[in-house]
Design brief:
The complex is a heterodimer of chains A (113) and B (113). Chain A has 113 residues and is an all-beta fold. In chain A, the strands form two sheets. In chain A, strands 2, 4, 5, 9, 10 and 11 form a six-stranded mixed beta sheet that branches. In chain A, strands 1-3-8-7-6 form a five-stranded antiparallel beta sheet, with no helix packed on it. Chain A is globular, with a radius of gyration of 13 Å. Chain B is mainly β. Chain B is built from no helices and ten strands. Chain B is globular and about 35 Å long. Classes of the chains: A mainly beta (113), B mainly beta (113). At the A-B interface, strand 4, strand 5, strand 9 and strand 10 of A face strand 4, strand 5 and strand 9 of B.
Chain lengths: 113, 113
């Protein structure tokens, strides 16, 4: 049972435009959400997180939006840059089980010139 | 180095053999995690260590898998009698404390032939 779903395996965006990566979850106990970015042959690196008490968190070009009623979150990258090309993983954890992140299967973003 | 270090980076082994994967976490990080990523899947939680507390082993897929963390630092993940379905990238991560963002190593790609 995939509790965190990233339904788009890939996304192609032109440089300078907005990239929107989506993530859906099914477990209503999840209360903390993170986005990680992964380059080939490297481990994932933390990008941005959001707690369920907020609906938006912004860090530079990266903004995460959380819609609890829809069990949906999204990562916006504006403007997109070629160096943003990577696989992006959505992850979630529940209060009391913060040691266990549940990851989605990832979305491969390609930013074209 | 400043990051999480894993060795070996690649390991090819014959079915039925035992393997040991090593992780050196970031100095000062009290929490250490093992995840694995099978082809086309998200990251799957395996085990978590926090300080001197008993580890959370709830993600280990079978009793062929074990892990230890010596002296609160280096960790070894051991897979006994490897099977082809054990083939995956095994990722180690550490964090300052429970709930802090995870810092991942580059992983060990295990191939069981």
């Amino acid at each position: 049972d995939q509790q965190v779903k990233q339904n788009s395996p890939s996304l192609s965006v032109q440089e300078g435009r907005i990239s929107i990566l989506n993530c859906d979850y099914t477990n209503s106990m999840f209360d903390y959400f993170l986005w990680y970015k992964k380059y080939p042959a490297e481990g994932p690196t933390f990008l941005i997180s959001i707690s369920s008490i907020k609906d938006k968190n912004e860090d530079g070009r990266f903004t995460v939006f959380l819609n609890k009623s829809a069990k949906h979150l999204s990562l916006h990258i504006v403007p997109s840059q070629p160096g943003d090309s990577a696989v992006y993983f959505c992850a979630a954890s529940a209060l009391g089980t913060a040691s266990k992140l549940t990851f989605g299967t990832g979305t491969r973003l390609q930013v074209t010139l | 180095g400043a990051g999480v270090s894993q060795s070996p980076s690649n390991k090819v082994t014959e079915k039925g053999k035992d393997v040991e994967l090593r992780c050196d976490p970031i100095s000062g990080h009290t929490a250490l995690y093992w995840y694995r990523q099978s082809l086309g899947q998200g990251l799957e939680f395996l085990i978590y260590f926090q300080g001197n507390s008993a580890p959370d082993k709830s993600g280990l897929p079978s009793d062929r898998f074990s892990a230890e963390r010596t002296g609160g630092s280096v960790s070894t993940l051991t897979i006994q009698r490897t099977q082809q379905e054990d083939s995956a990238v095994y990722l180690c991560a550490s964090s300052l404390a429970l709930g802090s963002p995870l810092h991942f190593g580059n992983g060990t790609r295990l191939t069981v032939t």
